Batch of 3 targets.
Target 1
Amino acid sequence: MSTTILLADDLSFMRMVQKEILEEKGFEIVAEASDGLEAIEKYEQTRPDIIILDITMPNMNGLDAMHKIFDIDPKARIIMCSALGQQQLIVEAIKAGVKDFIVKPFKPERILSAIEKALK
């Protein structure tokens, strides 16, 4: 059975790039979300093995969504994704319990190593 993943990013292009990289390696993308509220809703519906969550999104940012997802499931495996210059937010996410973080723009190997780390 393949590992299931929820992609949450407000940029459809970023989700498409991530989806291509992950599906090529045999991961199953069970849902996509374009903001934090949608990410929470899709998490509850699909209960994926891993969530890749962008920090900067409309309606609800990734950090707020992360806290809500951890409220629903303290064992959720979340990987945060952010652009450069958001170190303080990344530190907050790590303290809250995310498994790893990816800085955009990222190389395919980086997203794959983050997933490997999250699954351990």
Target 2
Amino acid sequence: MELFDGHAHLDDEKFDVDRDKIIEEIKKAGITKVISAGYSLEASQKAVDFAKKYDWIYATCGISPNDIPQQEQELWKTISKIEEIVKTNRQNVVAIGEIGLDYYWEKDESKRELQKKAFIKQIQLANMLELPIVIHTRDAITDTISILKENPVSQKGVFHCCPQNRELIKEALKLGFYISFAGPITFKNSKNANEMINLVPNDKILIETDSPYLAPEPVRGTRNDSRNVRYVAQKIAEAKELPIDTVAKMTFENTCKIFKI
């Protein structure tokens, strides 16, 4: 059984003490492909570096809503640098992301507007480069969907660590996006996880860890890594009443399809 972790942060400082060892153990555990997700200029460059070093790791490059510069001129410069990284390393980059909106941390309306501008600009970048996008959305579902409707994404993309919200999932699927689930669907207080999982057709579902964060049950509260993606797959298998091997295969194929791997 092979598993594909569709979203991890291998650059995170929590891996600084033993990164190479963990990466080796991930591969040995049957997680044969991993996407290292960028969220800032530095993280995007590091994701590319990992993809160059390991032929089974792939990079996404982008500026997340929580990492955008707070001056508009600096924002455009930063996105231009992301474009340069992608063009220089096109064979290693599979998407623009993670990008999107996060109103949980940002309450200032003018700064939320800047998030929207950054999101739209990076959608335009993805369309120019003919790449899918990886979307982060938190407490911003209405604006996220509105922007996607007003700014169609030619190569579609993925709602990463998708919030367990019925309307978001339905609207995302209507727009042709894939839904990626992470550790939260395994949490004991996640009462609607089975319903949310079953809203997603088998050919549109992905799995991820979002490591080193959001470790799933039964290892919740520990440092997460890509080996734990099997617990996410197991939860989906239980909810859909499928063998875990079937879930592993379909999510592997779906991830390869959306990211053209």
Target 3
Amino acid sequence: MAEVVVSSPGRMSTGLQHLGTPRWLWNDTAQWYVIQTKPRQEERLVAHLATRARAAEPFLPKIEVIRRHARRRVVTLEPLFPSYLFLRMTLGPAMWNAVRWAPGTRRILGDGDQPLAVPADLVQMIRDRVEPLGFVRVGLNVPAGVRVRIRTGPFAGLEGIFERPTSRQDRVRVLLEVLGSVRSLEIEIFDLERV
């Protein structure tokens, strides 16, 4: 392997440079980096790295997304940060090439000259949030007595008071004032927003 000689910051002088990366870039300590992927290629990159770069530890946090489709709720898991994933690796020539040229990789985020490591405690904070279910679940965390607004359905735009969750999953009771009297309405929690 040819040695890379750095003559001045940002300039290299050798005939056989290792893909244009200076020797001072390499690091033997495993750190977290952010990899930007091509659109919707996060899973493909994770699968590829599992076979080609086993020393790397990918982390692709996901979030539960709920959409309405044909009058029913469809729940899917999607990347928390679309087109990005975290990768814990030592930065050496072999790993650099395995990640940089992997199918689905767009680039390793950095400051232009070199990749920048992400603080391990930031990644751990995200992992702690993902850990209980294996994904992030966003819910309306509302205590009793808080004013809420109905977002969809025949009561869209009306405001009421959050009463309590019901025994059925994802359903809650909301108190609405309708025609001068207070009525209790059972509704899906995803149809509400805090006022």
